[in-house]
Amino acid sequence: MSMLRLDGVTVRFGERAVLDAVDLDVAEHETVCVLGPSGSGKSTLLRVVAGLQRPDAGRVFLAGEDQGGVPVHKRGVGLMFQDHQLFPQRDVAGNVGFGLRMRRAGRAETERRVAALLDLVGLPNAQRRAVAALSGGEQQRVALARALAPEPRLLMLDEPLGQLDRGLRERLVAELRELFRRLGTTVLAVTHDQGEAFALADRVVVMRDGRIAQSGTPLEVWQRPASEFVARFLGFDNIVEATVSGERADTVWGRVPVPAGTPGGVCRVLVRPAGVRLGAVGEGVPCGVVSRTFRGDHVAVRLRPDAGPELEAVCRLGEAPEPAARVGVRFDAAEVVVLR
Ligand SMILES: Nc1ncnc2c1ncn2[C@@H]1O[C@H](COP(=O)(O)OP(=O)(O)OP(=O)(O)O)[C@@H](O)[C@H]1O
Fold first, then answer.
1. What is the ipTM of this complex?
2. Which of 10, 25, 45, 123 has the highest local Cβ count within 10 Å?
């Protein structure tokens, strides 16, 4: 069953459609991450679902019920925004228990729930701490506990880990995923950070100018970006025009193998960096090595072919050629994607 359904939702500011007839389903217990560049409409999407922004057209359903005219506080959704807006004058317990008191939960009940939630987010016994004295990561956890406290049927996160440094972010993403799985929470998150989206989501939705450019599991979107826009947004830049005939494509880089069944004619092809194989000069496309960048478990190598755009390759540590060296490049069919 769909926990959330958007049906042709459009929001205009003046002439411009910031959301343009968006259809989206989020199943119960599913975590969907909406990803896209700045200004693509991600926050507006959350605001419409929360009831903070009225759509100019289309409808929002929560658990099958049309939310037209339903005010924010009656929608049963939890919100955690970018700047997490904790109440600075209240302590941690005052923040986490806020929504429970709004629902007139008794004092003992509130205390019990607050303690359980703080355990859950990894801040046991933090009730009396002042929020101003917490680190960014701790504040984020308090904001999460506060959003979860009223047991929302849908939890919405806007750039949930935006402010945090990378190490903490990676740890929290893993913890959040496990937490949502354990609680069975349905989550709609928006982020401009693809790493975060891919790590957190069961399904990724990529937006462009108020429309959905692609929707799929992280693996599907990563392996088969649907368009040049999505491919470039994911950081893939080895893209070139190609003329396909049979299982080969002619490009300015020379011949690139394409999957059997690819329709003939002119298109764009992407070669993922893992499919750019380096060999000796004279084998394949001659290229000069422009630079190499250490990336932890591999080295990214930039190559300049004699013609056409630069190429990125990945090499194992210790196997990357020196800058200014000459190499020959071959393309691996398994890493070639034909873009529509
Ligand atoms: N109240 C408003 N009035 C006019 N324009 C608005 C309003 N709210 C948002 N916009 C515009 O709508 C577009 C989409 O905004 P939105 O905040 O949804 O994008 P976003 O994808 O969340 O971007 P970011 O990643 O930067 O937060 C932007 O161009 C923004 O300037």
1. 0.94
2. 45
